[in-house]
Amino acid sequence: MSKLLTKPEVLAPAGDIERLRAAILFGADAVYLGGRSYGMRQGPSNFTQEELSIGCELAHKSGVKVYLTCNTLPTNREIDGFEEFIKSAYAAGIDAAIVNDIGVMSIIKRACPELELHISTQAGIVNYASAREFYSMGAKRVVLARELSIEDIHEIRAKTPKELDIECFVHGAMCVSFSGRCLLSQYLIGRDANRGECAQPCRWSYSLVEEKRPGEYYPVVEDDRGTYILNAKDLCMIGYLDKLASAGVNSFKIEGRAKSAYYVSVVTNAYRLATDYLFENADSFILPEWIKEEVMKVSHREYSTGFYFGRQDNSQYYKTSGYVRDYDVVAVVDSWSEGRLYCTQRNRFYKNDLLEILVPGKEPISYSACEILNETGEAVEVANIATMKLSMPYPTPLPEGSIIRKRI
Questions:
Q1: What is the value of pTM for the model shown?
Q2: Of 63, 91, 119, 341, which is least packed with CB atoms within 10 Å of its CB?
């Protein structure tokens, strides 16, 4: 692949203001977030109208775009309030709306004709005809279904207008159901996944029971906890961004609006570094190992490449629905002055512990604090009080928001 003419966008999730700040600091080109209604995630706190205005202002000051999720399927009762909702969001400064429902799309075109429309992955776009039709209806971007291969994306790109952006997920949780349109949660406990309330029953442990033998449970595999037959591995494409870029993908999307600010920081930083590296080394994209290792330092399930290289036999993980978690955030940098880092504690750590400092856009720095002073300047052996203010010696300034972490 020759040198890229344009650098793909790194699109990060933002479940609240804290995670929005993290995405901005660690290199996102754009963020996607939800208001208190009409979005597909109710787990995170999401944004009030006031917070949305603040968030848009923060993002735009750093040249970062804001995309608002409006991708539920509103009922008759809910659709009546949508026009006021989208007008308020547009006034707050959003750059695009991510939509699924054609009625929602028509209201936006009438009420906010200048607002960009991005078609959600919930729409299940798997062919060029659908992509072209959405473009003819006014869409600026399509978020393709996660069930597509790279070859499928190549064909969609070749047979759609070049003005139409193509966005694809590159990292995060995968849904067991096609394009996330799952009824399992609604059926089992009355929480509708298609309204942002999924309880993730695909992650639960299941056993087999025979109709005439109630109460007798048979593990489908040899495991006394049953089997996680629906449990998908997480997606990770950080080592294959060149393949997606050559297929015509304009935006690399990271899943995880319900994930922590630490997750957003680390994964956004990794894909920022990887995308920059790709832009400079498109002819020989072999990503440095330390960048690949960064995505292993957040809480995650086992990784796979999803459907991008065809249907794989290893896309499900049957042993457990738990996460791999090897690092804890122990402090966040507030400032630097006269040879000392001033920080806020997040998890317990001790003097002389081997730590890592994650600085935006940089390789992690190994560090060991030979001294910890509390807020009153007293030396302590351990930082073990939640959110305590502390300082440690460090020779050079580090940006506010840099993360100090420790291997568990």
A1: 0.87
A2: 63
